[in-house]
Amino acid sequence: MKLAELKKSGHAPSLVASFLYFDVSFMIWVILGALGVFITKDFGLSPAQKGFIVAVPILSGSFFRIILGILTDKIGPRKTAIIGMLVTMVPLLWGWLAGKSLTELYLIGILLGVAGASFAAAIPMASSWYPPHLQGLAMGIAGAGNSGTLFATLFGPRLAENIGWHNVIGLALIPLSIVFILYIIMAKDAPVQPSAKTASEYFTIFKKKDTWFFCLLYSVTFGGFVGLSSFLSIFFVDQYQLSLVTAGDFVTLCVAAGSFFRPVGGAIADKIGGTRLLTFLFIAVALCMLGVSLLPPLALVTALLFFGMLFLGMGNGAVFQLIPQRFQKEIGMITGIVGAAGGIGGFFVPNVLGTLKQITGSYAPGFLVYAGIGLGGLVVITIAKFAWQKTWTAKSASRQL
Fold it and tell me: Are the beta carbons of 147 and 259 closer than 8 angstroms?
C-alpha cells in the first residue's frame, strides 16, 4: 500500500538519485575501513592506531555534514550533492597516486569525510518531495544507500589482494563518475524548499531540547552501524584469525542486515511510531552487544553481530521517521547536525574497541561498553517520549510517535 502511494507521490527519479548518491558516497566513505587490514599491515599499526585510522573519515564526515547541511539550506540539495561528489574525487586521486605516508593517509581520510557528508543532501532531497505519512519509507529508501558499505567490504579486500589497496581507491572513481552523471540527469529539487536560515537561526536550533535528543539517539544507532562497519574486519582478523578476504565477507553479511533493514525500520515506524520501535531496538542492541562481549565461537558472534547491525539499521530509519515531524522547515540544517552526531558516535566506536584492546588485551571490554551505550539510548528515548507526548500530540493528532 505504501509503495503504491510512493509511486503516485513525489518524484521517483529524485528519490532514486538520492539513493545512488548516498550509496556510492557511503562506499567511498568507509573504504579505508574496508581496506583497513591491508593498510594496517603495510604500516604496522598498533590496535589503538588501527581504530583511529579507520575512524578519521567518520569524524571528518561529521564536520562536513554540518557544512553540507548549511549548503543544502542555502542552495538546495541538488547543487550541494554535485559539489560534494566533485570534492570527493580529490582524496580518491590522492590515495590512488600517492598516500605513501601515514600523514598523507590521515589527510586523505579527512577529505573522504566529504563523502560521508552526503547524508546532509541526500536525505533532504528525498524528504522534501514526500508528504508526512510517507517520510519514514521515503527517507528509509534514500538512507538505504548505506548499503554502499557492502560494495566496499565485499569487493575491496578481494581487489586489494590482487591489485593493491592504492589501486582499489583509484577504481572507486569509476562508480562515482557514473553516479555523478546520473545524478545530474535525474535529480530535481522539490518545488517548495525550506527558506534559507540566518546565522542566528543555526545557533538557535542548538537551544532546542529535541535537537539534542535526536543527536544522542542517532549517535547510538548510526554511530554504531558505521563504526562497526569500519572496524569489524580488523576484529575478525585479530580475534578469529580469518583471512583478509574472508573477514570482509563476514563484515559484508553483517552490514547487509543493517543496510537493507533501514527502510523497514522507517516503514514500521510510520505504522507503530518511531519511539515505540526504538524502545525495542535499543534493548535488542544492548543484548546483542553483551553477547558479543563474551567473544563466543565464530558462528555465534557472527549471528549476534548480524542481528545487532540489523537492529541498528532499523533504528536509523526510525530516528529519521521522527525528525521531519519536528523539524520540517529546518530539515536540511537538522539533518546535517544530527548526521554529524551520528558520525561522532561512529568515530568513538572503533577507537573504544581499539584502545581497550590495546589496554586490556581483549575486545570484550569494548563491546561491553557499547552494550551500555545501547541501554543509554533506551534511557534517552524514554525521556524524549514523555516530552513529545505532551507537546507534539497536542499540536497534531495525526503524528505517529
Answer: yes
Tell which wins on pLDDT, 4 or 259.
259
- What is the rounded average pLDDT for all residues in the chain? 88
SS (H, E, C) the chain: CHHHHHHHCCCHHHHHHHHHHHHHHHHHHCHHHHCHHHHHHHHCCCHHHHHHHHHHHHHHHHHHHHHHHHHHHHHCHHHHHHHHHHHHHHHHHHHHHCCCCHHHHHHHHHHHHHHHCCHHHHHHHHHCCCCHHHHHHHHHHHHHHHHHHHHHHHHHHHHHHHHCHHHHHHHCHHHHHHHHHHHHHHCCCCCCCCCCCCHHHHHHHHHCHHHHHHHHHHHHHHHHHHHHHHHHHHHHHHHHCCCHHHHHHHHHHHHHHHHHCHHHHHHHHHHHCHHHHHHHHHHHHHHHHHHHHCCCCHHHHHHHHHHHHHHHHHHHHHHHHHHHHHCCCCHHHHHHHHHHHHHHHHHHHHHHHHHHHHHHCCCHHHHHHHHHHHHHHHHHHHHHHHHHHHHHHHHCCCCCC
Query: Which pLDDT band holds residue 142 (cuts at 50, 70, 90)?
Result: confident
Give the Cα separation of 62 and 117 in Å (integer).
Answer: 7
Ordered structural domains, the chain, with CATH: 11-187+207-392 (1.20.1250.20)
pLDDT bucket at 7, cuts 50 / 70 / 90: low
Query: What confidence tier does 397 reach under pLDDT thresholds 50, 70, 90?
Result: very low
Cell of 208: 532546542
The answer to whether 353 and 295 have CB atoms below 8 angstroms apart is: no
Question: pLDDT above 90 covers what percent of the chain?
Answer: 60
Look at the pTM and tell me if it is higher than 0.70.
yes
